[in-house]
Amino acid sequence: MISVRDDLRALQGYHSAQVDVRIRLNTNESPEPPPTAFRDAMAAEVSNIEWNRYPDRAAVALREAIAESHSVDVAQVFVANGSNEVLQTVLLAYAGPGRTVATFEPTYQLHAQIARVTGATVVEGQRADDFTLDPNEVERVITGSQPHVVFLTSPNNPTGLVEPMERVRQILDLAPGLVVVDEAYAQFSDWSALELIDEDTPMVVTRTFSKTWSMAGARLGYLIGPSWLVAELDKVVLPYHLDAVKQIAGRLALRFASDMDDRVRQTVAERTRISSTLADLGTTVFPSGANFVLFRPDGHEGRAVWQGLVDRSVLIRDCSGWPRLANCLRVTVGTPDENSAFLDALGEVLADRSTRLQLSLQTSSETSLETSQNGADQ
After folding, report:
1. 43-60 pLDDT, tens per residue?
2. In sequence order, what are the beta bridge partners of 79?
3. I need a labelling partner for 216 at 20 to 30 A (CA). Which of 124, 174, 188, 248 fits?
4. What pLDDT, in 10s, does the model give residues 286-335?
5. Which helix (H) or strand (E) covers residue 246, if one does?
6. Residue 232 near residue 93, CB atoms below 8 Å
7. How far is it, in rounded angstroms, from Cα 29 to Cα 44?
8. Contacts of 172 (CB under 8 A, 6+ apart)
9. Domains of the chain
């Protein structure tokens, strides 16, 4: 039997629980579909696709639309099938065997996963207990390993933390190679590293259409960086990798920026409500600049709380088995009704488990007292 590469044997694929529930808040998708006008425009343009012809290999119209939305040159834009293919393309070009990639854990799991698949060595720095990034740890990791690629996620997934500009600048000053700032959730944050992009700085910012633009089903992502770096990516990406439908969808979506801005504002408001209510329920809530909230139900087993929610037809992300995230759970911000249903269900689960614990302790205490009394009688 043919065996897989030796360095891949210990790796596992990326997994997220797929459960049939009424409310699904586990994968950080947009809770709302694209606007009706987008769907109508999409249907009209798709009907005119020349299906017997290959799509535009350079995706020029889509890249021009993205470039205009960010006020950059079209040569600074690279597009691919979701931000994960963008990351993979970057790593194929700038990492690989004999090269080192640095991450700061806990963070997005696929950064290290894809780096290892390309054959690179991964060096993992560690965040502080509150998941912030200590500048001394940044210096230790970068000066010690001299990585060819450094990943920084802002807002960070799964913690929600927004990296301050000074931390990004510190990494740029220290890193000998490429700095990749993954901004899958940047629209929900208060600042973006895009303002640091220029032709002289070896840094790229990656984005996705899956969150703000309600297009997770399309799998479309992009990168903005120096034009010389973008040109190198064309050497490793497959020809005609981005189909005609995706190119149309991305270009049309950008016409509805005001609709998306309204949704971002609602998501941020709901994120605040969720965080406040979680704190009222006695959980530890970590600050978030994304469309999700990481929390720890103190005094409760995270996996048991997750199962209690599933039993009530609510699915969130169980992070309790991940390194550094014992008993932690992550909830995506949904519609107001979905969020209320989640909070109500969580309140029931926590109250139910607290009641069970109290009864257990009471029973244990009564049993101990009875045993003690029996012993005295003897």
Report:
1. 999 999 999 999 999 999
2. 222
3. 124
4. 999 999 999 999 999 999 999 999 999 999 999 998 989 999 999 999 99
5. helix 244-253
6. yes
7. 26
8. 179, 196, 201, 203
9. 34-256 (3.40.640.10), 258-367 (3.90.1150.10)
